[in-house]
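[Solved] Which block belongs to which protein?

Original post:
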Amino acid sequence: MSRRVAEFDWARTPLGPSAQWPQNLRSALSLCLGSRFPILLFWGSEFRMLYNDAYVPFLGQAKHPEALGSPADICWREIWGRIGPMLEGVTRSGEATWSDDEQFFFERALPREEVYVTFTYGPIFSEDERRVDGIFVPCTETTEKIVSARRLDTLRQLGARSGETRELDDACRRIAAALSENRFDVSFAALYRAEAEPGGEGEPRFSLLASMGLEAAALEPSAWPLASVQASGQPLVLELPEEGAVLPGGAWPEPSTLARVVPLRWSGDGRVDGAVVLGVSPRRPLDAAYLSFQELVAGNIETAIANALAYQQERRRAEALIELDRGKTAFFSNISHEFRTPLTLLLGPLEEACANPQVPEGVRAQLGIAHGNSRRLLRLVNALLDFAQIEAGRLRASFRPTDLAALTRDIASPFRSMIERAGLRLAVVCEALGEPVHVDAELWEKVLSNLLSNAFKFTLQGAIEVRLRREGRHAVCEVADTGIGVAADALPRLFERFYRVAGNAGRSMEGTGIGLALARELVGLHGGTIEAASEVGRGTTFTIRLPFGTAHLPAESLAAEPARPARPLVEEALPWLPSGGGAAAPGRAEPGGDRRFASTFGARIVVADDNADMRDYLLALLGGAYRVEAVDDGLRALAAAHREPPDLVLTDVMMPNLDGFALREALRAEAATREVPVIMLSARAGEQARIEAIDAGVDDYLVKPFSARELLARIGAVLERDAELRERRAVQERLRRRTAQIETLLDVAPIGVLLIDADGRFVEVNPAARRALGLRRDLLGRDFREVTRLIWRRAYADEIIGIFQRTLETGERFFTPERVETRLDTGRTEFYEWQVDRIGLPDGRHGLVCYFRDVSAQVQARQRMQHADRQKDEFLAMLAHELRNPLAPVRHCVELLAASPDDARVPGRVTPILMRQTGILGRLVEDLLEVSRITRGLVTLRREPVRLDSIVEQAVEAARPLFEARGHALTVHGDPALTVLGDPTRLVQCVLNLLNNAAKYTEPGGAIRIESVRREARAVIGVTDNGRGIPAELLPHVFNLFVQGERTPDRREGGLGIGLSIVAELVARHGGSVAADSAGPGLGARFEIALPLHAAEPGAVSGDAPVPALDDANALDDAPHAPHSRRVLVVDDNQDAANALAALLETDGHQVTVAYSAPEALALAESLRPDAVLLDIGLPGMDGHEVARRMRASPRLRRAQLIAVTGYGQASDRENSMSAGFDAHLVKPVAVPLLQRMLRQAGARR
């Protein structure tokens, strides 16, 4: 590079000729070119590049040597977006920067090659150190380090995930999962297995084992050259299509362009067993390191699959051995069943015959021999089964702490009479061991019985000794005899199965050679050892050593119940005596059943056994006392049970179609037979077989062969116990139902119920009580006093505790219908009705039951009703006051007119007063009616676009006389651009009410301001005054019905407190809202109405409120009209009202006739033919609507104007009037100018 730099024409660059380069550039370049470390220089504002030989690999063949002297943004255009800001930052700040293992994507071997670089940007300052002339960049490529670490982690994951798998499918899934975690180096993967064609001919087939990152179409084996790779045994690199069905690029957005198929050999014989397809990263070149990584991936895959296949093969071998063992166990079980069933049929009848005194003595002796040999055969069968269970690991011992000395003496004692009859002596010396030994009593008995039987068999004279002593942490038991002894060469084989010492002259040559072998196995189960020492002609000694404690025993066998011992060996050894003495004759069963269980006689028993002889035997044995039905398999037994449920089922275990265990499950599945007891007969002996039967739900278990007496006793006991259980279940069911009923009553009870015992603890708390107490923790068992003090304050809690304690001591009931309680935990005040009673408890002591219910809602409702009643009284008092105020001057004026009929001045003085006060009365009544209409939803809004300034202007004009009378200074500011959608009349009414309210509560001479402004998407009308203000406690309620400020003696304007309520209701119906604000008493108040703005079309906005309807009782027409005489009929049942109205109309020049009833009105109308009829609606007998309909039906009255004059002013009243034929509907009191105008129209109509 030194030569290239020297030969480069720098004059064509901004750096200029090298001879003119500054010293700092010369020094930096000298350091760069002389270094063996990759160094790059950026110089000047364009960051022109100079570099040494070690930096060339960074550029690659595509950029070197053209990169020399070129601007950095051109040479490194693919990464300029990242390094450009870094370079400019160093140039501006003069501070160095560095990066470790920074990832870049170079345009080098690939369009976007993944590269990692560690570098430093060091500034090179000018000679005056005021600026940065260049940047010195030492750098190192760390790509290999980063990528190798990533690939190594993938290999480690492959080994960790697939190394412990035992299934091929699982191994393949784990392989795919491990590869999927490195999509940077494995874009995709597919694992295939070669399947050889039958006969080994033809091209092999491949099956997919696992895949990662590929679509289904790309997973077909035909998509890859698998056969070629298998044939050659070499990897194959594939160039993938760049168009069409592109394959994924893994972690990168661009597709992969290369894939590699690697052969796999996992069988160990060198042949190709499969292949893996590995996608190559589109951003890393497929170099030697990449190829090595793929080979290592393939090697890990081979190891994982080989391990999984080896494990599967080993497992198949183990399963085959297990299956063989199962077959052997099944064989022994079947043999057991086949032997035990005929043995049962032999021993049962033989026992009965030997016990029968009617059988001749000689015959009984022969039967005794048969009975003894049958018992011997049973002993051989049991020994074989014990060996089978030990080999299968199914022999389960029950180890319990046992006094081994006492047990050993008990086992040896039955042998004494037999040994002494043979002329021998039995010595039993058992020392106290000081602590119990954990043994299975039944198995220990088998060990000792075998040893004693063996000693008796080979001892012809002398003695047999049983010795037990303690040696350290072992119990030592010895069985010694003075018999014929065993040769030294035979001793090592003495405990082998089926081994018999040749030539020994014992009492008998009988034997199978398994007794001592069985003894050794059983001692081994106890964690002990057995040894033999013998000398020919001197005798033999067997020594057993059993450890103390339980550490040597399986924990699961320490809690089992001990087995019941059986002692068949003494009876088997008795025939070896010279006299041939047999066993004592067995006892005989009671004919027909065991009389101890006579209460069970007559019960129905279903017998299931596939052996016909066994069925006949059981029928004969049980038929005398019970109703017996015998069937030959489980299915027929189930059908018999369904047909008539039995009291007991006696079943064999092994039967065709449905065995005994399946029969028990089938009986359990049906409600009618679920509780039927089952006794199971089985050839399987031992504790484990019995436990399995009990676990299956069997009530009793008998091992064949069994005695008739035992069977009858078992059947009677089970039936008697079942009868007791049924009675107990019936009682429990009655108790359960009663308990459930009580619990249901408590659960759904709307009152709380607490049951407290004599110690003051909660015994029962029903859901209503839990909800009322509100405690999350379970109350049962908690102290009542503690809980009480958690809920209520100390003094009140102590009072409640005292009440409960007095009731518990005296038995006196406590009841309170209403008690106020303030909760300590919630702060709420609650009202409860509660009662406490003393009750007796099952333990003989007394407890308390408390019934209570929350009456807070009722109390609060009563309080609200009382408050409403007070409000009603206050309203009525206020209404009376407001009505009396105008009535007083009216009465005074009337009295003045009556007292001065001739005084011409009086009418002029009283007429304004009467007009004013009757107007006040009319407004009071109209306000009450308006509230009623609004609250009942009877107000209909006639919405139209209207300008808000027009609403304000009309309201101000209507209120101006009141302001002028009180001397208020009124300021008006209206925004003409505000338009809302509403009923103009109602909006004027709302604003007018606010203005009247301001005037009412502002002292004379005060200031009132009304304005309309825009506030976001709403138009706001505000009325502000400097009057009395509003107290803070009243402010939230000012828009409620009947709420008023404080009345003062100088506030002459009355009111019912309903004006603001009307405003709130009407504004809400317009979609708006109201608000009130005041700084306090004496500081004035501000009321606001906010309405949604409306975007109206030009010219569509109404500027004025609509003209009141002609029949509106409040519409005034003050224009003077010349009187025109009309014939008028006034109809009203109120004579004063009729006469007054008639007198008023007569003063106006009309001819008036009065009628006080409907019939009179109809008659007068026909004769008078009036121009107008003023007709009251509420007439007695026949209302005004019916009178109007009849008048309209008369030809003489069709053109008469019918005017309803009534106190009913609802919209429905007006509609009813119009439908009845009225021309107008006027509400009392009638406005005289409006009535005059209507009468003029009546004349024109005529």
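(Second protein starts here: sequence line, then its structure tokens.)
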Amino acid sequence: MQSKNYLHISLLFFLFVSSFSFAQLADFSLLVNVQNETCTGNGTLQFELANTTPNATVTFSVYALPNTTQPVVTTTQLSVTGLIAGAYQVVALQTLGNASNSQQTTVTVTDERTILSYQILGQQVNCFNADVTVDVTVGQPISYEIISGPVTYPPQPSNQFFNLPPGTYLFRVNDTCNDAIVQTYTVFYENPPNVIVGSLVLDCQLNTCALGAGTLTLLTNESTLPLRYPLTLAFTAQAPNQSSISWTQTVSSGGPLSVAIPVQMPLFNTSSSTYTVVITDACGNIRTFGPINYNSQPTVSVSSFKDNCFRVLQVNPCLFLPPYTLNFTQAPPGFNPAQLSPQYPGPYNDSTVSFAATLTTPIPNGNYTLQFTDGCNRTITYSFTVNDPPMTYNLGYQPALCSWVLSMPINGDPVVSVIFTEAPPEYTQQLPFDASGIIVGGVFEDELPPGNYEITVVDSCGITSQLTMVVGAPPVEVELVPGNPNGCVGNLGSVGIGIRFSQFQSIVMTEAPANFTFPLPYDCTPFIVQPAAVYAFVQNLPVGTYTFTITDVCGRVFVRSVTLVPQINTNALIKQELTGCGFGFSSIALRSLNGDLVSVQITAAPPGYPQPLPHNVSANLFNGRLYMNGLPAGSYTIASVDVCNVQLEEDYTLVGYQVTQNTIDFIPNCGSFDVRLFFTDNNLSNHVFYLQKWNSALGQWTHPGTGVPQVSGAIPNSSNGIPLFQGMNLNFAYTGQFRVVEVFYYFSNGNASLTTCVTTLKEGSFFGDLRIINAYSVPCADTPRVVIVAQGAAPLYYSITSFNGQPFTLVNGTSNIFTGLVPGVYNFRVQDECGNIVNRLVNLGSLNPPAITANNLCEGQFGQLAVDDNALFTYQWWNANNPSQILSTTAVLPFNPFFNAVHAGTYFVRITYAFAGSGCPDQVLQYVIPPTTLPFAGDDGIVSLCSPTVTLDLFTVLSGNYQPFGIWTDISGSGGLNGSVWSTQGLPFGSYTFEYRVDGLCNTFDTATVVVQFFEPLPELNITADLALCAGSPLELAAPTIPGATYLWVGPNGFTATSANPPPLAATPEAAGTYELTVQRNSCVATASTTVEVTPLPVFSIVSTCVNGSVHLEVVPQSPSNLDNASLAWSGPSGFQANTSTVDLTGQPAGTYTAAVTVNGLCTTTVPLEVLNTFCAFPNVLTPNDDGNNDSFNLIGLDVDRFEVYNRWGRRVFAERNYLNSWRGQNENGGLLPDGVYYYLVFLRNGTEKQGWVLLTSGR
């Protein structure tokens, strides 16, 4: 649509400007039909014209955009071919005489080529040969052929080649564009010997006297390498007298990992025969095994067992030829083999013969000798003894039962009777003790305490055994292992506690040094490692002596002590060196055996050290260890102080990074290449090497096969590169720009993790399908020289096949310089030695001059500047700062190695052309290498956010030196990152990770990681508490319960608590004050406080006094109470109320009177007093006649401490403490006193005394 609009506008324009001058020419139309590029350079434009002026000429000019000044083709033909993909502008110029007009349009030729690409896959079919499949991944193949190798094949439609012998082949695939792509493939397989000899098992029964049949097992010693059939086995069997027999067997097939083959082994009638076997596999591998011993004479054994308590002798011969005979030449009296085996003495044919005793024909105990003679007349004599075996038992300690356990039988007949005749005192049964009652199913099992035992056991066959055994003490062992601290006294050690043959129940520390921080005894039971409970580990212990009381699950108690002593080390620091990332640099790690380093200074350093001396590098301490890199090679003096104040000043020599071997080559083949890698350096970390391919569309290095890129921030690995190994790496059938990259590690700055060093060791390109890289022109006085730069397997052959779309042939041989060419479009063809053919259309009018290219200008590596090399050219390189010094006279200016600080600058190369003839002036080209610095991204950082919406500049989290021009990446994908500023708006709470990357040259980069912990903010802390309290009431503190949060209350009088709602306190004056609450969840902290006032309760007593015969009550304050501003409320029977400090109870009834005193309008103390009598006059007459009047001497209500009565002669007749009204005229013994006048004394509790006379008259 755009081209149509553009054409329409152009037509209007030409109509407008040409209406006067060129009206005589018709306004024609132009239509361009495009045939896209399907083969290299076959793009075609076809022109259609309408409404042209008769007899006018139309000339077509085709421009390759964006160049609109120099056409690639000018023609009057109605088609143009030989175009490569791209955008073109077509201008049609109509002329007739001096009149002209034009039309133009823009078209695009699309690249629809499917450039042939294939992989060769080989499958091993025997030891050395392969079936090969040519797998075309892209393109349109029409035939496949092998043009070179141990065997060749003419073009064929099939992509498979079978049973190719070892060697190097050139495969060629021809496509529909008549292009031919050649690729090298090597058929080579290693076939290490892998067969081994297993067991030889001969059959017991023979078929002949000379040979024994059996099986021999063969195995592979490598599970991934199957046995290679057929296997040829050459046997040699030898007798002790050196006579031998040889034979050969072939094993045609069998299992992949093992095979059991039948064998016939010679029998020499000796137990020390040997055989040797030489095994040859299908690949020609030969392995010899032997001599291997084997038995070649008959054997016989006799087993004795019981069948229902009757003994059976079973004779078992082997390697015998039946029939055979048996002859007992010695036996105990009473043994009659003929009665036990009717066939005795034979002949026998079976593999076993049994002699079974009966009730009347026993097999007695004793010594036997048996003579065995087989069918080959070979005789073997075998002696054996028959006994009743003693009872077998097992006495073992079982920790779970805390006891020794006796079990029997282990093997043999069931037990029917067990009687203990001797046992230690701890065995609680009365001896002899018949323990048969605990036999279960013929098995006896019982726990035995330590001591000596004698036991009589009878089995089910009636055999009696006398057992004597000693049961020892439980073998429980407890061991303490000190973990002495390295360093000074302040360091902490540990104690390991182990137990054998039991388990821990509890561990209590009973003694410890004075600076042990916990009170003793200290329960260490939680440190027992469960569930085994056989080991405990107590840590963080100051030096000194510790005593532990250890109780096991059986209740046994062990007391053990151990002493921890400090070990202060004054030896040199422990140094580790990893040479650094960059030529001549190193990295180190230093640590003290005493613990943390607290100060480190570099006091002397080589000249290249970038900091003034002395240089305090303590900032690079991490967990008490120094980690530092970027150190130039040379001698250093480092002063250090550790936590034990051990001061050292030591000399170190750092060697720096050096390459000791560097042979890396891309070796081109036809269609594939090999990588020769022999590279070593002095860095001691693990090294890995990878082959990667450059993807220009992604701008990233990728895996050559899968295309997986090495994304920003990642390091090379097996997913984005092909691992390489030292030596030759074969058959890489890829094309493009490649690099060999090395990955190793060195120490970081101030961090224990290692830093990755990624170094490009070699870059190169391989286009095994043959490529025309460039074409450029050299201006000369006669005609320009055209130089075609191609890459492929030499020698290359150059020719021209067309000119301006017409056939044209020019064979240039192996020269890539063409001369005498007139302007126009030429099709150049190049063929390589492999047979690949490529074509390229070149417009001579659009050629560029040569240019300088840079390769691998990486710090400390081997780089270069280069121009295209040609034997007819001469070169001179120089630096702009010193034009008189010629740096190189080849096509390459090497930097070996390259250092930007040394080599940055402007470079020139003069190219002199030595063509035949004259008039080709020199050309001077220029290239600028800018100065660079290594990237620094700073140190990792972590920050916690506790606000609901935060905007954070991530640079504020980085530490250390960093360059501000890097790129921040949101690793977590939160979407809130804008540049370096991250917003939490709308994001869920959680942990977010960001990477800051600063890129340098040569794929160098540095990264730092920032972790932002975005936590849910804590809610507002509203403390709930009574702010004014009375002493003695509960002081309750409460705060919101926040899941996952920790609480810390701190208040007066040493108060602390760790829950949201602590248990209520007793409000006392000491509890008054400010209570502060700190709540923490994750890294978020909130605080709140409240002030509590505590008012003491009023303290007072009620004093009862007698005034004029009436009871008066008075509130009397007690220290420290002050009731000046208090309010008072009395209450009592019959609605009595008053509010004065003293009340008169005249006329009031007896009962409970209560005084309530309130201070500050808040705190009230209520004191009741039981008033038994509100009238308190002392009686002067006593008439105990039960008439209800003066029956007793009533002093109720007077709070009497002691009451005494005396007769007129001063003798005490009655006395009572805490008196109320019990005296009714009786004496101290309870008898009645005579009527008369008596004297009394009353001692009140308030300290006053009352006395008087009373008349006693009882009316008697």
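Accepted answer:
You had them paired correctly. Confirming on the second one: The chain has a mean pLDDT of 87.
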